[in-house]
TrEMBL record:
Its EC number is 2.7.7.65. It catalyses: 2 GTP = 3',3'-c-di-GMP + 2 diphosphate. This is diguanylate cyclase. CDD domains: GGDEF (cd01949).
Length: 325
């Protein structure tokens, strides 16, 4: 029956606390055990046991309770923290405090001779331990400040990743809008915006499947990035449409750059299964104008793209399939 109770308790405590971390602190456990053993050996070797009627049981409960709680604190500390300076300072501080408290509790049972130096041990380690613990807690506070700063930085990274399209690894359209707005707010209209749309992407998707469509989007995104300047920004606008921001580039040069991208994509033999598929792009470029909003600039370039799509016939834009590698 007793064994069953111990087993249940062990299971319950095991679920609440992870005692496996104790294995990480063999030296600290040794120090703690040594402090307990030293206090017991010193007390019993110097003094004599009191008679039961001399024992103040209220003091035993109070002082014994402090010892047990100090041991519990050490246990919590060691199962919660990795080894290191903070853990060492706090454990040794607690050990000193516990050593004094244990001597204090034991003298309820043991009578010391008048000239014994043991009471000195009772009073000195406790304040020394408190100083060590205070220093340890200050170091812990510093450690928490550093950890919090790192967590905040990581959180900012995660938030930033939320703005990146998972298929192409390009920023999404809202990031582009932000960048355009920033330029327009600074009254800087010395930039061009271009839209690049893959022709007949829906047909490609239906024929080769969504995963292959994703792969094509990634390849084209990389090709676009390879054909722009360092200062240009490329984002995924929507579906099979990309958007480019080209600062400090006149309209004519921006058009040439977008033409180069279209030409690079046209010559890309995208291998899927046994076939090489060639794609074309429909593109539109617009230069920002004075007092224009981001929305109206994007509307203008979108309208130009739609006009181009209607102008070029379906046959001309259909993907070309070449059998064999
Ligand atoms: N594989 C894949 N397909 C996508 C993704 N986002 C959108 N699409 C598909 O892209 C296709 C876009 O279709 P449309 O807008 O008709 O474009 P299109 O077929 O190129 O037609 P045109 O632009 O007129 O030539 C749809 O089939 C969408 O399902 C994506 O992340 N991955």
């Amino acid at each position: 029956m007793f064994c069953v109770v111990i087993l249940i308790e062990h299971r319950l405590l095991g679920n609440i606390m992870n005692f496996s971390l104790l294995r990480l602190h063999p030296q600290m456990l040794l120090v703690s055990g040594f402090a307990i053993a030293l206090a017991i050996v010193l007390s019993f070797s110097i003094g004599d046991l009191k008679h039961s009627h001399q024992i103040e049981w209220l003091d035993v409960v109070g002082e014994g309770g402090i010892v047990l709680l100090t041991i519990l604190w050490q246990l919590f500390l060691l199962i919660s923290r990795p080894s290191g300076r903070v853990t060492t300072l706090l454990t040794i501080g607690l050990c000193c405090f516990m050593f004094s408290s244990l001597l204090d509790a034991l003298d309820e049972f043991i009578h010391y001779p008048e000239q014994a130096w043991l009471p000195l041990f009772e009073s000195v380690p406790a304040p020394f331990g408190m100083i060590l613990m205070t220093w340890g807690l200050y170091q812990w506070h510093q450690e928490m400040l550093t950890l919090n700063a790192q967590l905040r930085r990581r959180e900012a990274d995660v938030r930033e990743h939320g703005r990146v399209d998972l298929v192409t690894r390009l920023y999404r359209a809202d990031y582009m809008r932000e960048q355009i707005n920033q330029l327009l707010n600074k009254r800087n209209t010395n930039f061009c915006v271009a839209l690049v749309d893959i022709d007949q992407f829906d047909a490609f998707n239906r024929r080769f499947g969504h995963p292959e469509g994703d792969r094509l989007l990634r390849e084209i995104a990389e090709l676009i990035l390879m054909n722009v300047r360092q200062s240009d920004l490329v984002c995924r606008y929507a579906g099979d449409r990309f958007i480019l921001l080209m600062p400090d580039l006149p309209l004519k040069r921006a058009r040439q750059q977008v033409q180069q991208i279209a030409s690079a994509v046209k010559h890309l033999a995208f291998k899927t299964g046994n076939q090489a598929v060639f794609h074309t792009l429909t593109t539109a470029v617009a230069a920002a104008q004075e007092n224009e909003s981001c929305a109206s600039l994007l509307l203008r370039v979108n309208q130009r793209l739609e006009q181009d799509k209607q102008y070029s016939g379906e046959k001309q834009r259909a993907p070309l399939y070449h059998a064999g590698r």
